[in-house]
Amino acid sequence: MSTANFIQLFLSGLTMGALYALTAKGLFIAHLATTRMNFGQGEFLMIAAYLSMTLLLVGVRVILVTVLVIALLGLKGWGLERIALRPLDRLKSLVGGQYSWVLTTMGVALIMQNVATLVWGKSSQYSPPLFSASRDNVVKIMGVGVFVEELLVIAAAFLVVGLFYVFLFLTTHGRAVRAIAFNRETAALLGIDVTRTTVLVFVIASVLAAISGILVGPIVTVQPHMGLVFTVKALAVASLGGFANPLGVLAGAIIFGMAESFSNYFNSAFGDLYPLLVVLALLVVKPSGLFGEAKADVR
Amino acid sequence: MKKIGVTLGAILSSAALGGASFAAEVKVGVVMGLSGPPAIVDFGESYLQGMKLALKDYSAAGKHKVEFIVYDDEANPQKAVSLVQRLLQSDKVPLIIGTVSSGNVLAFAPIVQKAGVPLIAGPAIASNITSQFIEEKPSFIFRCSMVEKFQIEGMLDWGVKTFKKIGLVHSTTGYGNFAAKEIADGVKARGASLVAVEAVAPNVSDLTPQMLKMKESGAELVLNFHESFELVFRPMSKIDYKPTIAGNWGLSSLKVRDIVGTKEIEGTVMGQALDLSLDAPKAFVARMEKEYGKEFRWPVLAALGYDAAQVALKALDTAKSMEPEAIRDALEAVDGIKAISATPAKPYGPKDHECLDREHVFLGVWKDGAVVRLKY
Q: Is A210 helix (H, G, I), strand (E, B) or coil?
């Protein structure tokens, strides 16, 4: 393999990994604070991609698109917690009741798929580039081409990791998230508003889906069924990272993206088989994930 | 199971038909892929749009009151089989038209054949749909659609003559693997070989690795047999690689053009059965645009849907009765069709149950945002 091809595949893997990381971080933050996840995280991303596409196509400026989509998805995250999760808390004491959120978040995902189909149609759609009128806004890095949007995805994934650390360790709300992750009752006794913090993590997860959706549109084809793949891969990535800290999620995502890119180069016949085998092999070696610990971890 | 569409029909007085012997209310069963993967939906909805327009035209001049009973098989073989059984046993239709997925058609065709009810398959394209039944006495399986092997043969005749190095990108679905085998055999039969063969599994959205392999191999022509037709185009500008892309008729979709870009898709070649340089197809496209607006997105699919319905409705008019056997016989004898697509005036015969034969399939090429006949 030539050096140029190696760099090309590396950047390609990094881009896809960054996309999975952004989705997986949404799963991570919700799981950290509530031990629950939004199985419709990919569908939130899909809705954000559609909203972004629609606004861009009618000529709204990128910055305004970003603000609007983030605000709308944040609202959706709030709605998810209020409508699909919180009312089920009273079922916790019933057998299996603590897992009702799996069904409700999946149900919301299906509803969103159907809403997207009704609003935007069943066909795949073209989403324009964020910063160019043409479809070939390629920049050269070490002699190989990369789309500006791909660089943005990579930058966003790393930036979000940094912001997560700042949020979790340097802000009051972040400390509240860590506290309820450790023990909800104790956190409540210490005066932390557990309900509000729970809402906050689902809003953050949705905002992450919004960022992913805005960035992913110009890179892949937008269609109502695009979300599930991202949810499944993000789950694999978060498991590989260990659901432990933002850096673990990023590392897991990059490993997955690289495995996907290079395995498709050497043997394209099996698609996701190789990256998933990598995840399985690593989990066999370290069941708690690369950055996870066997004991409770609230870093 | 949802019944998503109905009716559209009319009775024409027998006087207007010059004394025709009877007029009946006829239910025609339609199984179509109308939800699920976007590529399937585009095929199914486009074909159905053409069918509905044909029925609308028939309603103004036809002999019977015809109703389409439309069911969505969701690209699911089990569902397709159960819907066909419902059409046969509950709705008791004497004729069925459908569907998109070749696997679905191959799953229910034996049931329809055994029931003795004629089927006009379409827009499924697997090569063996009618051929495996043609020796039956009689065969009830007809088709009005592209035939995969005809477009592959046309493409390879042109490709091998025009390019020194040919590569293949195919999906790992049943369709993609089947096409890959037909292409590999066809290239070998023409004394050439493929310089690279790359697969794309479902859920893979970045084809940079596969297209890098194509570039490395020096492929000047990349045959694209993947259901997500746009994927091969995406990495081309970043890896600075501009081969000619050729593939099945899916590449002629207006949706694919919009996603890939008019400039980027220029020169792309595909199997085709609709010549838009002719007046009748042009007028048809104008009518479809007026009828369906933005929802109209695939001229050749709509044209074949129109022609399939035309053939079916004409068979109903000429059949001796509304019994399935009589309609089957009428289908074989139908003549005088003024087709929009390349379908001949007499599409079928006792040993030919395909609307399109090898000589009717040609190659189209994107030029200035429209598909025109490729001259070579």
A: helix
